[in-house]
Amino acid sequence: MEIRSTTDEDLDVFVTTLHTAFGLFPETPAEGGGGVWWSALEMDRGLLARTADGRPVGTAASYSFELTLPGETLVPAPGVTAVGVLPSHRRQGVLSAMMRHQLTELRAGGEFLSVLLASEALIYRRFGYGPATYTHRLTVPRHRGALALPRAGGTAGAPTTGSVEVLRRAECGEILEEVYDRYRRVQPGALSRPHRWWALRAGQPPIAPAARYIAVHRDADGVPDGYASYSVDSGTLTVDETITADDAVFTALARFVLGHDLVSQVVFKHVPPGHPLRWQLADFRAGQVSDHTDWLWVRLLDVPRALTARGWFTDGELVLDVDDPFLGERGRHLLSVRDGKADCVPTDREPDLSLDISDLGSVYLGGTTPSTLVRAGHVRAHRPGAAALADALFAAERTPHCLHWF
Description:
By secondary structure, this protein is α+β, with helices and mostly antiparallel strands. It has helices spanning 11-21, 94-108, 121-124, 173-184, 195-200, 247-258, 277-280, 303-309, 357-363, 370-375, 386-394; strands at 2-5, 47-50, 56-69, 73-85, 113-117, 130-131, 134-141, 163-168, 213-218, 224-233, 236-243, 265-271, 288-294, 296-300, 316-324, 329-338, 341-346, 353-356, 380-381. It is built from 11 helices and 19 strands. The strands form 3 sheets. The protein has a 7-stranded mixed β-sheet. The two termini are 28 Å apart. This is GNAT family N-acetyltransferase.
């Protein structure tokens, strides 16, 4: 079997092989080559697995993204995508060979982490990825959707001094791109959406060409500072995503969609764990949580670089014994945090925590607490207090959340 990098000339065979692996048929791109999820593929970042006689049997690729780490640090993050093996060649080592090839190439290119959305949870832990952000769906019957006024001097639930304007998706492309970019730069776990994605209408709504209404929030000076993308079908208003870094603006957009006439319920498709919206409902039980699931998975390729790249909010020291069975590596690292910065060096000291590289990926953004993984039997704590210290160290300034689909 041969695994080789792809070029633009390989696009058709790459797309055909990928869709065959999933039992699907490719859509027809719109004029100009956009409007389908795979139109933003970067073919210089793709891999094609072929048999000895040249038949394509597997694909893998990655996008050029930026990931926002705790502390509002932006780092390059290859977004692994389009991974598939033909049904006739599964369980023959093709997938493992492609993933090892890809991780080796990424590391050789200077990357210290990669991310993906996992089609199946059992697959990607084997390759060192761990779930790092989570999301859920919140459904609110419209007749029970009143928001309570804030108490104890709070302001998040109070009406803003701004305004909400309803536009069609085609009328506000630049607004969406600008607002999303401001949001993702301060939201841990968020990925960039390159201009290429917006221009080609690649991905899911509101990037994709599907018809959507956009509720745009503007501040008191008329500057857009948030939006909600939504559609209405059979009495249900479904919000694809609500984008803003301001809790008060989020509440204003939620109040707008919850007050929409001629709908029986409002569905917020992507709400991060611990979001205050459910608590803002006058009737707490009106908000029904469902479809709680993992979203962004993280894989560290260079532990010291990854740990020193993010921001930290508690001082302390931990010795981490990290096992990376897929790449056949093991390292013991002394993590020292002072004044928001970390140093990470090899050490012979006894470990505080022993963990798999996939578990380190899960705790990296602050969305999974190390103590949870200790209790689950994934991570071993070697001394009392080690898990609690790790919880404090790895915590982020706000819950990491990723909305971007790729």
